[in-house]
User: Fold this.
Amino acid sequence: MEKIAVISDIHGNIPALETVLNDIKERGIKRIFCLGDLAGKGPHGEKVVDICRERCAGVVLGNWDFAVADGNGPTFLNLPWHRQRLGTDRLEYLKNLPHAIDFFLSGRKVRLFHASQIGVFHRVHMRGTHEDHEAMFTNTDFTGSHFIPDTVGYGDIHHAYYKNWKGKTLFNAGSVGNALDEPTAAYVILEGNYGDKTPGYFSLQIIRFPYDKELSIRQARDEGMPDVESYAAELRTAVYRGLPASEDPTLTAARKRESGQAQV
Assistant:
């Protein structure tokens, strides 16, 4: 039996990441999967990338990782500032992250990705339609076709939850560093027999931890990060800069770019 940690949406927030990693270590968890958005928003994307490269068994591409690595976008995303701190090697690492991770766990076919089966810029909310949730289990060019999953985990919406229906489990790992459901660091623990195709014990647990948000904000100020007050408000209130999470500018701009209307 093995416990697996699933973390997501760290967004350069080192105090939050360290809090979660300390808890993971205390629980004796060795295998960690990260569902993307290592960089952007917070001040220490470079440190988060280095830690995840060392500690995680697998990392998938997030929408902010794509935007930072690509470098094109609205000025209020402050992409040049984040790109400069990451440097060439880390930007290449982000650019080449895989889209999805597939594995067996106690007979379950588990698939992990950042946002959806369509891509990193296609958002599926907790209160999305049943059809949207059902579609998350389909194979696409984005996910590949290793198997048809019965357990799907994702990040992106910064809101931890899980649901079950007709032998399927859909869960969101929440956000380590930029939660939009409550101002704590969240992650998920899966437990079962890793790599085993034989049906057996399986569990899923959502973990939440308070962390020193004021330290995260001080670090952003100390680094001279642009737009610190908006970042501080997000951490303290778990509200996306006064707007619904569905209005994330990286998502809106990227969709326009894909349709030829604008650049990210």
